Amino acid sequence: MAAQITHIGIVVRDLDAAVKLWSENFGMKEFRRTDIAAEGIRSAFLSPQGTPDEMHIELMEPTDKADLSNAVARRLAQAGEGFYHLALRVDDVEGTGKTLAGKGLTVIERAPVAEGAKLRWVVHPKSSSGVLVELI
Questions:
Q1: Are 89 and 13 within 8 A, CB to CB?
Q2: SS3 of 91, please?
Q3: CA dihedral sign, ordered 27, 114, 74, 77
Q4: Model's pTM, two decimal places?
Q5: pLDDT tens per residue across span 96-120
Q6: Starting at the edge strand that comes first in sequence, how are the strands of the sheet with 2-11 ordered?
Q7: Burial 46-83 (b: 16+ CB within 10 A, else e)
Q8: Residue 67 CA: distances (Å) to CA of 39, 54, 61, 109
Q9: E strand segments, 37-97
């Protein structure tokens, strides 16, 4: 089912400070920064070689930390910075999501994060050992 672990998501209070921390202390190299309006976050993607084709991290800062209807802002308010999600590349996002839902897991279809992007599905943390799993 899972073809590859693509990245882990980390919620941060200050995106610029977090990029600096991961770059200066762990040697990670930023290869992309983006605002993801559909999620209400700003993200920076970093990897050891600075390329998207290797396993990487996504640092995520909510654009409105006071908006507790936003899942990332809510997570930051309730638990602080830290691990948020694990992203898995799968061959068939929709089929995998439906298979997992058929097995009783809580699976949510999510809107594409950019124009031309495909739908994403996430498995609710209550169904996957406390970890939000993003299927891409």
A1: no
A2: coil
A3: positive
A4: 0.90
A5: 999 999 999 999 988 777 666 677 8
A6: 29-36, 41-47, 56-62, 2-11, 82-90, 132-135, 120-123, 107-110
A7: bbeeeeeeeebbbbbbbbeeeeeebbbbebbeeeebee
A8: 12, 33, 12, 21
A9: 41-47, 56-62, 82-90
pLDDT computed for residue 81 by the predictor: 98
**Segments in the chain below pLDDT 50:** none
What is the per-residue pLDDT for 79?
95
Copy the structure tokens of residue 74.
Answer: 């809510």
What local confidence, expressed as pLDDT, does residue 117 receive? Answer: 66
Rounded CA gap, 31 and 53, in Å? 11
The pLDDT of residue 66 = 97
Closest CA to 37 of 136, 109, 114: 114
Can you give the pLDDT at residue 114?
Answer: 67
Query: Rounded to whole angstroms, how far apart are CA atoms 116 and 131?
Result: 27
Query: Among residues 11, 130, 120, which one has the least CA distance to residue 74?
Result: 11
